[in-house]
Task: inverse folding
């Protein structure tokens, strides 16, 4: 995939502070800022020669992770460089909040997440170390597939042990 950054594109000026949700009203504002950034990601993907269908899939996958999970559930900035957020999304939240979770569908979402964070790094908005952490978490597809299978195998009150392995609590 082409590197999405300043090659032929207008400089991306982002105030990271604009992406920090502090109140419920802020969450709506941050959600709109994320939409704008995701549209920029989509447009740069198209401009870099990525077919429209693929660019749409990548942007949609990133959108689901960014707006529905990072901002709404975790209530944090997309620029908050704490490792583990993709793992929480893929190994817990996605599984519990999807009627028919599948490894194939999740893989599509994670491809979008990885491409979006590469875009952010290409614009010098996140560190290389954080990008590498995101990429490593996105690549752990076998673990996520096993988590989906183990979710379907839960019996009686086994959910609590399942959830504890990759909890949404804390960072």
Result:
């Amino acid at each position: 995939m082409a590197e999405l950054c300043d090659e032929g594109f207008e400089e991306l000026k982002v105030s990271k502070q604009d992406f920090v949700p502090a109140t419920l009203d802020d969450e709506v504002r941050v959600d709109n800022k994320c939409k704008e950034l995701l549209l920029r990601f989509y447009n740069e993907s198209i401009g870099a020669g990525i077919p429209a269908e693929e660019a749409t899939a990548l942007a949609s996958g990133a959108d689901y992770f960014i707006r529905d999970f990072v901002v709404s559930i975790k209530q944090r900035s997309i620029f908050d460089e704490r490792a583990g957020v993709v793992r929480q999304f893929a190994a817990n939240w996605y599984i519990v909040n999807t009627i028919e979770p599948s490894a194939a569908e999740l893989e599509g979402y994670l491809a979008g997440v990885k491409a979006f964070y590469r875009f952010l790094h290409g614009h010098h908005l996140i560190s290389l170390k954080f990008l590498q952490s995101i990429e490593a978490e996105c690549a752990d597809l076998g673990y996520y597939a096993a988590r989906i299978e183990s979710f379907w195998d839960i019996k009686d009150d086994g959910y609590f042990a399942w959830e504890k392995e990759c909890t949404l609590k804390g960072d």
